[in-house]
Structures are given as structure tokens and as C-alpha cells.
Amino acid sequence: MGPRLVSVSISFGGMLIFAMMLGLVSEAISEKLDSLRKGRSEVVEQNHTLILGWSDKLGSLLNQLAIANESLGGGIVVVMAERDKEEMELDIAKMEFDFRGTSVICRSGSPLILADLKKVSVSKARAIVVLADDGNADQSDARALRTVLSLTGVKEGLRGHIVVELSDLDNEVLVKLVGGQLVETVVAHDVIGRLMIQCARQPGLAQIWEDILGFENCEFYIKRWPQLDGMQFEDVLISFPDAIPCGVKVASRGGKIILNPEDSYVLQEGDEVLVIAEDDDTYAPGALPMVNGASFMHIARPARKPQKILLCGWRRDVDDMIVVLDAFLAPGSELWMFNEVVESERERKLIDGGLDLSRLVNITLVHREGNAVIRRHLESLPLESFDSAKRLPYREAMVTRGQRGSFSRGSWIGEMQQASDRSVIISEILDPRTKNLLSMSKISDYVLSNELVSMALAMVAEDRQINDVLEELFAEEGNELHIRLAELYLHEGEELSFYEIILRARLKREIIIGYRLANAERAVINPPNKNERRRWSVKDVFVVISEKE
């Protein structure tokens, strides 16, 4: 009896221990699966693009990165935000674009916690993009600054560079000071503000920027070509059948990128060529083509004239926009500011933003109070007298639809249509889907602000050197994109190759990168068959890079 009782006790004890062990193993497995599901596991990838944060720009950013990596068969993008992993994956799955082989991995965590940064292999990432938070600009930039501080504290160091999206230009210096050589900044409001100013002066420029900033068409690339050493830039210009050179990264000047250099500049050992091309593997220098010499066109550019511009709406960086407009416009110009901010408070807000009204030399501010959506407010303005009108920002709620797909005369667009034959109308829109509504109006141009900022972030993430190029093209000094009438370079019906027109433009120290025919809706950047002759019209226009006027 005794031995049997002992054996039974041992059996029950063994079963109990086995059940306990099985429970512990099951619990460990469940915890591991829960950890994987909630995004707490470590990422084993390397050479990936890491995105820290979540905003309404994420979709466009992922789309651009997917297009950029398509030629490589796809890439790896890791997104870490303070959200539930399953929610992030569900939102990304709803995005309406093709990922083209790129894999997106989501992790839940905070960029301010080093353990969470280690979890996403931050030290092995090829580039790190810090997205701005939606909401208060100062709080968003403060968080971006703390994130940069956290990134610089990673013990293993960083393999890639950091691209920081900022909301306020005033905070850029501090972020660069903290991040040092690791950091490239893209100030979203500043980029869009400057682009809207350029588009107001040159309608159609927004489409050009969409083509150049996005990876779907042609974009900037920098590469070294030893076979071009000793060649003058005027010959380099016509040496690429499938690209357009527009600058040189000069080795002897510490890698400084010179846009639109002198024709006589001779490429030295170590120099790299900045081009606009379809992809980084689609172009190479070829044999120097035979191009007829350029004959000088004695056509002077029209002198700058004072302009009258209407700015509808108010934003925190409007003071910066005023400074840029003062630099671009001719003396005697007027800037009419039409918004709901009480006139007595505007000067205080502008001064608090850093604007010195006494230093405005070219423009005079004219204040009007009202709402651009209300017809009777708009009727108080001399809309037909403005050279251009800009709306900041444009949302679906500002549009009322009339019958037969038209806009009601009481809407903002309806009112602006009445003046569209005399004025250039530029609108900022936040949602790309809204552009379908604008296509039915007579809006001269629109700026897809969120999408363009996402494009800039993706481009700088792929190649940080391009940020220097973008900064110069958007700045008040140096070179910028222009849309020029064909009559500045040719006569009506003249037969010329694109290369011949490029050489004619060089006589004015300009680089032509594309054209838009008189009967076409979109411009062609980096056209093929550059040495084939065709008949041109003076109603055509050319896209050029040249010194600011």
C-alpha cells in the first residue's frame, strides 16, 4: 500500500509540475506574440530608412520613398511612432498607392527613449526622417529638437544622416547647432511660402517643382565622371544625351555645389556633376555632339514693374513671406493683406514674428479685414486690379458647388473667377484630392503643400547633398527656376535642336532644363532626342535655371 501511494503521489506531482511548466511556456509564447503584435520587438534590418513620428505627410513620404527604391527592387522603411502598431499597419494598408516592392515595418515607441531607438536599429539606418507633429509649431519644433538630442546620444553612433522637418524658420539654427553635421533641415512653412511667392510671379512653376521634387519623373543627381576631367562646363552641358547638367560639386572648395557655373569652368579631379535625370542609372556622358554655334538674340528681358498682390489668410510665418516678397518685387509694389486678424493687432503680430517694417524697401502693406469665403467681403476689394492673388490655405470647406459642376458665384473661387483673366490666382491646398475641384475653376496654379514637403523630405533622405541645391533655388539670392517666353531665344517657326537652344541660353548665363509647348498642359523636363531639330513657336515657354532678377 505504501509504495503504491508514493508512486501515485509522484505521478500527481509530476503532472502538476508539467502543467505549471506548460503554463509558463504558454504564457511566455503569448507574451512574445503580444510583443510582436504591439511592435515591441527589435528590428533586425540594416541600411533602411527610419521615419520617426506620424503625420498627414506620411503617406506621400512613403510613396516617394517607394518610387525612389523601385529601381533597386524595393527598400525597407521602418516607421516608429507613439501609436499602436496594429493601428499604424491598418492605416498604411489603406493608402492608395503601389509600394513597388518596398516593405514598411511599424514599431510602437518614443524617439526620446534610447531603448526604443535601439529597437528600430537606429544606428544601422541609412537615413532618419523626423516628422513634425500636427498642431502647435513651437511645441512640434521643441519635440524635434529633443529627438535630435536623443539621436546624438546613441552610443553606437549613426551610420546615416538625420532629416528634420521643422515648422518655424526661427528654430532651424538651434536644431542645426545641436545636430551638427548629422542634420539636414526642411522648414515646411518656409518652403511652401517661398514656392507660393515664386508661383505668383510665374504661374505654372508649381507643376515644374512637382516634377523635379518627386521621384516619378526627373530629379537631381550628383555623380563623379572621371572622363570629364579637363572639360569646360559649356561642353559638359551637351555631353549627356539623357540628362541636363546644371551644376558642379567642386572638390577644391570642400565639396561646395555651384549651380549654373561659368562656361569657362574646367572640371578638376574629384569634381562631381549635378544633373537632372530620370534615375541615377539612366544617364552617362557620351561623345560630344556636333551642335551649331549659338547666334546671340538681342532681345532684352522686360524690366521689372511694380505689382499689386492680394494675400488672403494668415499664418504664423507670414512675416517671413513679406520679407521674401520685398526682395523679389520691384519698388512701388503693394501687398494687400486680407484676413480676419484685427488690423490693430497685425502690426504687433508681425513685429513679434521678427519683421522690421522700416526695412521694407520695395513693397507697401495695405490692410483689409474680412473673410475670403464671404462674397460681400470680397466685393469690397478691387479684385480686377491685382496682378496675383494667393490663398492660404485652401480646403474643401471653402468651395461651394453650383449646378453642372460649376462653382457658385458666392464662393471664394466663384469671386476670383471674375478676375481670373487679369490676375494670377494661386491657392495652397493641403489634400491632393482637392486639386480635382480646382481643375474645374480658373485658378492659375495651386501648391500641394503637404505633398511637396513630403517630396523634399524624401529627396533629402535619399541624398542629403540635394538640400543645398533646394535651399539656393528657394532663397532670395543666387539661382532660381524661371519660366521664360520662347521669344527670348528664337524667332517664330525657327527650326532648332534643344541643344542649340541650350547654347543660346548660355549667352544669357542660363541653363534650359525643359519646355512647355503652346498647346500643351504640362512641361517636358529633360526632353529626349536633344540633338533633333524641330519647329518652335514664340508662344512656347522654356524652364530655365538662372540668377535671380
Automatic annotation (TrEMBL):
What's the domain of life for this entry? Eukaryota
| Record GO biological process | monoatomic ion transmembrane transport; potassium ion transport
Entry's Gene Ontology cellular component terms: nuclear membrane
Domain named RCK N-terminal is located at: 46-187
Q: Where in the cell is it found?
A: Nucleus membrane
Pfam families reported in the protein's UniProt record? Castor_Poll_mid (PF06241), Slo-like_RCK (PF22614)
**What InterPro entries is this protein classified in?**
CASTOR/POLLUX/SYM8-like (IPR044849), CASTOR/POLLUX/SYM8_dom (IPR010420), NAD(P)-bd_dom_sf (IPR036291), RCK_C_sf (IPR036721), RCK_N (IPR003148)
- Protein keywords: Ion channel, Ion transport, Membrane, Nucleus, Transmembrane, Transmembrane helix, Transport
Q: How does it sit in the membrane?
A: Multi-pass membrane protein
Q: Where are the transmembrane segments?
A: 6-30
Homology family: Belongs to the castor/pollux (TC 1.A.1.23) family.
- Its name, as the record gives it, is RCK N-terminal domain-containing protein
Q: Please report the organism this UniProt entry assigns to the protein.
A: Gossypium tomentosum
Organismal lineage = Eukaryota, Viridiplantae, Streptophyta, Embryophyta, Tracheophyta
